Amino acid sequence: MRTITTTRSTGLRSVARVVLGGALVFAGIAHLTFDRESFQAQVPDWVGIDKNVVVILSGIVELLLGAALIVVKRHRALLGLAAGLFFIAVFPGNISQFIDGDDAFGLNSNSARRNRLFFQPVLVAWAWWSTDALSVFRRRPADSD
């Protein structure tokens, strides 16, 4: 019974990881092409770097992370940890969009922008759970001689 449960859980994690990777690839493409202006609306003025550069760089990171989550097998937990940290790093942009009242991505009300803030922790948890990212912090037994 344990093997079936473990296999089912592993399969669900794999599906969740691939879906997240696909979403990141799509978002990266959107950053670099058809939705660049909407993403620029999320870059806080205090960042101090040209908003277009920030959007391009974050789009490249999303493409790389997304593709890696889908195809890379080694160091998957580290990739998931990186994806979660990326979602944390861009969270100030979501906060800025809410505070400044910037319309983008169909978020044209304060309640819609506020509600979006609650989804960011879900993305972090999704990245970390689907890759077992927190396993990088578990103590591994020392190699025996």
Can you describe what's shown?
With 145 residues, the chain is mainly alpha-helical. The chain has one domain (2-133). The protein is built from six helices and no strands. The longest helix has 31 residues, at 2-32. The chain is elongated. The protein starts with a helix and ends in a 14-residue tail after the last helix. The mean pLDDT is 90.
Q: How many strand units?
A: 0
Question: Helix/strand-derived class?
Answer: mainly alpha
The biggest sheet amounts to:
none
Q: What proportion of the residues is helical, as a percent range? A: over 70%
Outline: elongated
Poorly predicted residue ranges: none
Helix segment tally: 6
What integer is the average pLDDT?
A: 90
How many domain regions? 1
Could you spell the SSE succession in H and E letters?
A: HHHHHH
Report the end-to-end length measured between terminal Cα atoms.
36 Å
Q: What value does the Rg take, in angstroms?
A: 17 Å
Strand percentage:
under 5%
